[in-house]
Amino acid sequence: MKHLKAGRKFGRKSAPRNALFKSLATALIKHGSIKTTLPKAKELRRYIEPLITSAKEETFLNYRKVTKLLKEKEAVKKLFKEIGPKYKTRPGGYTRIYKTGFRRGDNAPMSIISLVDNELKKEEKSKE
Predict the structure, then answer these.
(1) Sign of CA dihedral 125, 128, 77, 25
(2) Average pLDDT, the chain
(3) How far apart are CA 23 and CA 71, in angstroms?
(4) Which residues have C-beta within 8 Å of that of residue 59, sequence separation ≥ 6?
(5) What is the value of pTM for the model shown?
(6) CATH no. for residue 122?
(7) Are residues 37 and 111 in contact, defined by beta-carbon separation less than 8 angstroms?
């Protein structure tokens, strides 16, 4: 039975899997969007959304929690200074996953995961 066993393992033990998500989350924050496989993108969404929610309010506790889960200090600063305040009024759903087809070679489903900032810019322009 699969009760209380959420999350994919990706054929890795817990430490390499945590390192994978730290690096994917750091890259997503630095670049705004990344291309990865669809299962990794779906799991990354579960990893990054609570971090962005924590970054909405800049407290010492939230800063320590996010610093523990990301690799680079620049990514933490960008998360708290730019990304968190941008989503202050948004209740959730900070990322979007676009399916891009299948990878040549192993036929893995590929996708682009990106932060939902283009839609916010469109809404602001339409209100003006």
Answers:
(1) negative
(2) 92
(3) 7
(4) none
(5) 0.87
(6) 3.90.1030.10
(7) yes
Which of the residue ranges 3-12, 32-41, 76-85 would you say has the lowest mean pLDDT?
3-12
52 and 93 Cβ atoms separated by less than 8 Å: no
Query: In this structure, what token pair is assigned to residue 108?
Result: 């893995």
3 occurs within a structural domain = no
Do 51 and 79 meet the contact criterion of CB atoms below 8 Å apart?
Answer: yes
Domain-located, residue 7: no
C-alpha span between 58 and 113 (Å, rounded): 25
Residues 30-59, buried b or exposed e (16+ Cβ, 10 A)? eeeebebbbebbebbbebbeebbbbbbeee
Show the domain range for 88. 14-127
Total structural domains within the chain: 1
- Residue 69 is assigned to a structural domain of this protein: yes
Residue 121 scores a pLDDT above 60: no
Strand ranges inside the chain, DSSP E:
33-37, 95-102, 109-115
